[in-house]
Amino acid sequence: MDIATAFPPLALRIQAGPLTLRPITDEVLMVLIEVAAAGVHDPARMPFYYPWTDAPADQLPTEFAQYHWGTRARWSQSAWSLEFAVEYDGAIVGTQGFATQDFVTTRTGETGSWLGRPYHGRGIGTRMRQAICAFAFDHLGAEEITSGAFTDNPASLAVSRKVGYRANGRKRLVSRGELAVDQRLVLTPEHFVRGDAIAVTGVDAFREFIGLTP
Questions:
Q1: pTM
Q2: 45: number of Cβ within 10 Å
Q3: In the β-sheet with 178-187, what is the strand arrangement from edge to edge?
Q4: What is the rounded CA–CA span in Å between residue 123 and residue 209?
Q5: How sure is the predictor about 26, in pLDDT bands with cuts at 50, 70 and 90?
Q6: pLDDT in tens, 180-194
Q7: Helices (H) and strands (E) in the chain, counts
Q8: DSSP letters along 39-106, please?
Q9: 29 in Cβ contact with 68 (< 8 Å)
């Protein structure tokens, strides 16, 4: 037995053209820490609901690693968060996730992602969202996928529009002690704008692991 047999999410891999969504092993985790530490967004703005990038430079590596180890430790069929490292043209550039509760019944989940600043504006964000949504719809049987972004985050909202998400209400939240309006979004299969065709490995064991038929 190897670690991917014990924990099937570590055997999943999604290929879409020059982009690969690959498991976040501890080796890959160290590369992601370096990408995150080099900068993810304009420091003057906070695009994330949880301001993880505000961690002091000497604390960010530990907190980043603990988050990803924690998603594995907390995994259950009733609540799980699937996190991938994004590899583009051979370089690790960010992460793409899909989080859900009671997926077997609800058939829905929420996408979330980040990219290192040097990789912004190259269409990678759209490609990785298309890849995770194609996986959720085609291989897991998702019926809708949600997302959200603060209204002052036009880049994220633009990606959502390109992929086919539609507005689904707004929420008033707090970010860095101030009001932040969260634009909620929803995507259904009939509105999904696909990108490169995906090739998936490890999906049968993963489906069984989350309570779906192989």
A1: 0.96
A2: 12
A3: 166-175, 178-187, 144-150, 108-115, 91-101, 79-88, 19-23, 13-16, 199-201
A4: 32
A5: very high
A6: 999 999 999 999 999
A7: 7, 9
A8: -SS-TT---SSS-GGGS-TTTHHHHHHHHHHHHHHT-BTTEEEEEEEEEETTEEEEEEEEEEESHHHH
A9: yes
- The CA–CA distances, whole Å, from 39 to 34, 60, 61, 77, 116 equal 9, 11, 13, 34, 6
> Sign of dihedral through CA atoms 184, 186, 192, 198?
positive
Residues 25 and 101: beta-carbon distance below 8 Å: no
Note the pLDDT of residue 213: 83
Would you state the structure tokens that stand for residue 15, as one six-digit string? 């290929």
Q: Which two tokens stand for residue 136?
A: 């959720």
Can you name the residues that pair with 110 across neighbouring β-strands? 99, 146
Q: Could you give the C-alpha distances from 191 to 102, 134, 140, 154, in angstroms and in order?
A: 24, 12, 17, 20
Residue in the structure block whose two tokens are 């594995």: 72
SS (H, E, C) 133-168: HHHHHHHHCCCEEEEEEECCCHHHHHHHHHHCCEEE
Q: Any idea how long the chain is?
A: 214
**pLDDT, tens only, 84-136:** 999 999 999 999 999 999 999 999 999 999 999 999 999 999 999 999 999 99
